[in-house]
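User: Could you check the structure of this?
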Amino acid sequence: MDGLMLKIKNKLNSKDKKIILLVIASCAAMLVILLSEFMDFGNKPAENGGNSGGEEAVNYNTEFKDYQSELEKKIVDLISSVNGAGNVKVLLTIECFEEYVYAKDSEKSENISPESRIIEENDTYIVIDNDKLSAKGGMLLKIVTPRVRGVGIVCDGGDSPLLRKEITDILCAALSIGASQVHITK
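Assistant: Sure, the predicted structure tokens are below.
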């Protein structure tokens, strides 16, 4: 160990002092970065897949999962009431989150020349200024609820072709989905 310290001391006295200090500083920086991976600084990742939305992102994710579970419960209640279904389990997949559709004003401009015809369309969202709330926001036209991608059903009567057809028809009508998006088994 003393030999190593002596070599370092001799090198620091030589012409290469700047290079050695740069190497030592680089090693120290890499060590700090490596250690920071193992230390908790109180930062917790957002639960919505990496967006740093904080509490709002967590609430939105929770609301989505609540919506999905509530819809699954309603489907279980509906299918359980069908004669011969018996015990029912449901897995529901949702295509997207709630979508907000805002009013917008569109302008089209057309530029015609002998060589080409160019049509440009510019959209501008309509903003409402509410003095009472001292807030501005877009004019909300509608809220599109999440769409169902597919439904998997496991039920006691799932081996009956007639019952599967009846349940499929009910789910297609209730959820506005196609028969290919429903699978029923025992």
